[in-house]
Amino acid sequence: MQNIKIDGLGNFSGGEYGTVHIDGVASCHGDITCESMCADGTFHCGGNLTAKTASADGTLNVSGNMTAETFEIDGAASIQGDLHAPKLSVDGSFSVKGTLHTERFDIDGAASVQSDLYAQKISVDGSLSVQGTTETDILEVDGTVKLAALRAKQFNCDGSAHITELSCAEKIHIDGTMQTDGNLEAETLYVDGCLSAKKQISADKIEICGSVQADEIVGDHIRIEFDPRPRMIRQIRDYVNSIVNNLLNREQPARDCCANLIEATTVELTGVTAGVVSGENVVIGEGCRIDRVDYTGSCFIDPSSTVRLMNGQPYNA
Q1: H or E segment at 158?
Q2: Which of 59, 238, 247, 262 has its CA 20 to 30 A from that of 209?
């Protein structure tokens, strides 16, 4: 089987090849099937590209669809069609206009998907943007992600995430910052960082030790404890975090705990501002400001907190 190696300028026709190695500038008119493809220079494939292994240390552009068992990008790669690559790693710049199917997706550089993304595990230490739906078993974010819609079994965020709609998650753990423009649905939700939701947060078990802002927070068991440190310490921390976020081009997260409605069977709150708190067993810890508390079982209110109404009647501590 013929091999292709171009060190200078060249072009060749589509077909079946052993290895395709581009160190210079080359283009191919038609579809390519090969054992391995390496673009250390600049390579434009005018059709579809199929390879067992593919790498782009230089610049690769594919006008059609691409299929590879492994695809490593240390330079720049652009796929105009769909991409099927069980093992995909990005240390440079990568974009795909079609649908991306992969099993393991590791991102240390910058990746952009203009359609849907399907994967078993996604690890982001760089940046990822997806305009379609992202479906994955596990999403781990230590960098920055911006997603239109996410469906994941497990989502861990130690970096920064902006997700329009997040649903069908079994477990969400946020140590960094996350913003969602829609609803957030999960079985369990743990927040040690900052979470902002413009609509409803819904989970069976919710534990928040950081900050949260939402229209509604609904679950079976809800425990929220806002940072009790003095105001000056929080201001210093927020100032340092704002500098880091500006350098990394991240959006500024919420730094308090407030919601229009908090509703669950068991509710435990500290340092929270809310419109209505409703539950069977309710504990209002120190530093809370609640307009109305409705409960059917037991209720405790710390003397440092303020409550206007309890079960529809004025509350006097």
Answers
A1: none
A2: 247
Q: How far apart (Å, rounded) are the C-alpha atoms in residues 76 and 6?
A: 19
Please enumerate in sequence order all residues whose Cβ is within 8 A of that of 233, keeping only pairs 6 or more positions apart, or say none: none
Mean of per-residue pLDDT scores for the chain? 90
**C-alpha to C-alpha distance for 260 and 19, rounded to whole angstroms:** 62
The first and second tokens of residue 240, run together, are 């340092």
As given in the structure block, the two tokens for residue 196 are: 């902002």
Structure tokens at 256: 């308090």
pLDDT in tens, 55-98: 999 999 999 999 999 999 999 999 999 999 999 999 999 999 99
Q: What values do phi and psi take at 245, rounded to 5?
A: -65, -40
What's CA 183's distance to the chain center, in Å? Answer: 14
Per-residue confidence band for 231, with pLDDT thresholds at 50, 70 and 90: very low
Contacts of 274 (CB under 8 A, 6+ apart): 258, 259, 260, 261, 262, 288, 289, 290, 291
Q: Look up residue 173 and give its two tokens.
A: 């753990």
Contact criterion met (CB below 8 Å) for 201 and 188: no
Q: Could you tell me how far CA 112 lies from the centroid of its own chain?
A: 13
Whole-model pTM: value is 0.87
